[in-house]
Task: structure prediction
Amino acid sequence: MYLLIDAGNTRLKYACHDGGRWLSQHAVALDAPGLTLPVGFAPARIVIANVAGPGVAAHLERLLTDIHAPCEWLMASAMRCGLRNDYEHPASLGADRWAAAIGAWHMLRSNALVVCAGTATTIDIVQDTGNFAGGCILPGLELMLDALAHNTAGLPRSRGNYVMPPRNTHDAIASGCLLAQTGAIQLIAMQLPPATPILVAGGNGARLLPHLGATARLQSDLVLQGLLAIATDRSETDDKAWRA
Result:
């Protein structure tokens, strides 16, 4: 059994897997994270992707005190689970991006564009050669909306919708920010082979999906899928990453 934890900038996502199926998946607010595990669940391994900082890491350590299982705090590396990391400095890649890329590779074994639309939006390329080729980071949809509201004198925090063409300020802001997100994704997709799948995760993924074309699909648990691949395949694991 495996406990998989994705500590992002806004939410804590975690899941329990018995080696054959998901037993449970949860998402809780980061400001008061807790873990609710199935009765009798005793993981053999724990894998954590934490980009929320040392305070959340310390809180998770306390929550896991009574769970006696090897635990890995994921860090990106040059190679993992059959995927090579082409980042100039592999260890500087965010753990969540690395896990999502591994998840995409294990699901598809093909070219893929991996989009995680959360507090930030990341757009990463996985190649059918088994390479993580790199990608882009931009402010997430809500950060874009907040930036206009906080840093301009006359623009409100948008309560608008995507329409084209927009005919009021709220819709103009909502539509412009959404087009900035989807336009970046589509421009990168144009650099890839035709019909490359676009896997979309993150809290804003469902809002972007209708504007990304027929090859896009929502894969909300993509980071957790990558963490599961890591938990179940130690063939390339640095044993020093694991602790009892």
Observations:
- The longest strand covers residues 131-139.
